[in-house]
Amino acid sequence: MSSNDFAVRLQAAVARHMGAPGTIFDLKRLTGGANKTTWAFDAECGGKRGTYILQLASTKQLDPSDPFAALAELMPHLNAEEDARIMIAAVKAGVPAPRVRAIFDDTDGLGGGYITEFVEGETLAPKILREQRFAPARKIMAAQCGEILAAIHRIDPREAPFLKRQFAADVIEMQRKVVDLRGFRHPAIEMGIKWASEHIPKNQRHTVVHGDFRHGNLIVGENDGIRLVLDWEIAQTGDPMQDLGWVCVKTWRFGGPKPVGGFGTREDLFAAYEKASGHSVDPEHVRFWEAWGCVKWGIGCLGMGARGIDEEVLERSAIGRRIEEPLWDFITLIEGRD
Question: Which residues on adjacent β-strands are paired with residue 45?
Answer without folding.
Answer: 21, 48
